[in-house]
Amino acid sequence: MSVRIGVLALQGAVSEHVRALENSGAQVSLVKDARDLAGLSGLVLPGGESTMMRKLMDRYGLFEAVQQFAEQKPVFGTCAGLILMAKQIEGRKGPHLALLDIDVKRNAFGRQVDSFEAELSIKGVSEAYTGVFIRAPYVKSAGKNVEVLATFEGHIVACRQGRYLACAFHPELTDNPALHRYFVDLVNAYQ
Ligand SMILES: NC(=O)CC[C@H](N)C(=O)O
C-alpha cells in the first residue's frame, strides 16, 4: 500500500501538488479541517501567502492540529509553506508553526523581480532542477541541525531537518518530479 499524504488546501497552489505527489506514487487527500489529518502519513504546506494561510489555519482549527501532526509526521513546506515552518521570520514578532530552525526573509529577491526561474543543484535530489521562484523567501541562516540542500546566489533555498523539508521555490510548477519523490521517500522512511 502506498502512503497517503495530505495537501493543505486553504489557499494557494494545491492541485499541482496533488498531481505531483500522485505521480510520485502517493495517495493524496486535501486537508481543509483538522479531521482531514486523520490517517495521513505526511503533509504538504503549499505556496500562497503565508499571513493569509495562517489566518485560515486559525479559522479552520488547523493551526494546533498541524503542529501536533508535525510532532510525529513529515511535513514539506514550499514557499509560503517554508515561511509557515520557520522558527524566525524577519520583521515579524513571532513565528507560525516554528518547526524548522531557520530564519527567513519574505519576498527576499526584491520587488522588481516578482518571479524568475533558476537552475539549481539540490543535494540528494537532482543536479539540474529548475526552481520557479514567485515572490519567494530565502533562508538567512539555519541552525546546525538543518541540512542545506540547495543555495541560489549564496542564499539557502532548500533545506531539511529530519522529517521536515522546505524549499523557497515552487516544485509543483516544474515537470521534474524529483523533489516530490524525495518527500514521498522521506514519508515512507518515517512510516
Ligand atoms: N509564492 C509564495 O508562496 C510567496 C510567499 C509570499 N510572498 C509570502 O510571504 O507568504
UniProtKB/TrEMBL annotation:
Residues annotated as binding L-glutamine: G48, E49, S50, R106, I134, R135
Pfam families for this protein: SNO (PF01174)
Pathway: Cofactor biosynthesis; pyridoxal 5'-phosphate biosynthesis
SUPFAM superfamilies (UniProt xref): Class I glutamine amidotransferase-like (SSF52317)
EC number from the UniProt entry: 4.3.3.6, 3.5.1.2
Residues of the active site: C79, H170, E172
InterPro entries found in the cross-reference section: Class_I_gatase-like, PdxT/SNO
PROSITE patterns membership: GATASE_TYPE_1, PDXT_SNO_2
A GO MF term: pyridoxal 5'-phosphate synthase (glutamine hydrolysing) activity
Assigned keywords, A-Z: Glutamine amidotransferase, Hydrolase, Lyase, Pyridoxal phosphate
Catalytic function, reaction form: L-glutamine + H2O = L-glutamate + NH4(+); aldehydo-D-ribose 5-phosphate + D-glyceraldehyde 3-phosphate + L-glutamine = pyridoxal 5'-phosphate + L-glutamate + phosphate + 3 H2O + H(+)
Subunit and partners: In the presence of PdxS, forms a dodecamer of heterodimers. Only shows activity in the heterodimer.
Biological role stated in the UniProt entry: Catalyzes the hydrolysis of glutamine to glutamate and ammonia as part of the biosynthesis of pyridoxal 5'-phosphate. The resulting ammonia molecule is channeled to the active site of PdxS.
Family: Belongs to the glutaminase PdxT/SNO family.
Protein name as annotated: Pyridoxal 5'-phosphate synthase subunit PdxT
Species whose genome carries this gene: Sporolactobacillus mangiferae
